[in-house]
Amino acid sequence: MGKSADRVFHILEAIGLSQDGETHDELGSHLSIPKRSLSSLLGNFVDREYLSLNETDRPYVLGPHVLVLAGRYLSSSDMIRPGQPVIKQVIASDNLPRLASKITRMSEMRTRST
């Protein structure tokens, strides 16, 4: 795999696994990516909504398009079939706070039924 492709995956994994997101400087330091290359990659991620930038304290976090891809994956999974209407509704509304609430309720219902 090429260097740029590796960097793309490393950035997504670093931000996706971070609880509070990652700043430009943190990503550059952890991943050893030159500032200019990192800025270009992060700009593309934000433009395509794979990442969002919190303007207050500047960490990058996963963006709404990641949810769309995850929803498509989940909608094709048989074990998720009962939750598909909720997933489709949330994807259509792009309302991430509601998604978190619905996932919590679904998880609680699943826990109670076992």
Rg from Cα = 16 Å
Q: Give the CATH architecture of the largest domain.
A: Orthogonal Bundle
Shape: elongated
Number of domains: 2
Quick structural summary:
The protein is mostly helical. The chain has two domains: 3-62, Winged helix-like DNA-binding domain superfamily/Winged helix DNA-binding domain (Arc Repressor Mutant, subunit A, Orthogonal Bundle); 65-113.
Topology:
Layout lengths: L2 H15 L6 H8 L3 H13 L3 E3 L6 E3 L1 H12 L8 H10 L2 H18 L1
Antiparallel strand pairs: 1-2
Helix pairs in contact: 2-3, 4-5
Task: Describe the fold and architecture.
The protein has 2 domains: 3-62, Winged helix-like DNA-binding domain superfamily/Winged helix DNA-binding domain (Arc Repressor Mutant, subunit A), CATH 1.10.10; 65-113. The chain is built from 6 helices and 2 strands. The radius of gyration is 16 Å and the shape is elongated. The chain has helices at residues 3-17, 24-31, 35-47, 64-75, 84-93, 96-113; strands at 51-53, 60-62. The protein is mostly helical.
List keywords for this structure.
two-stranded antiparallel ribbon, elongated, mainly alpha, 2 domains, Arc Repressor Mutant, subunit A, 114 residues, 2 strands, 6 helices
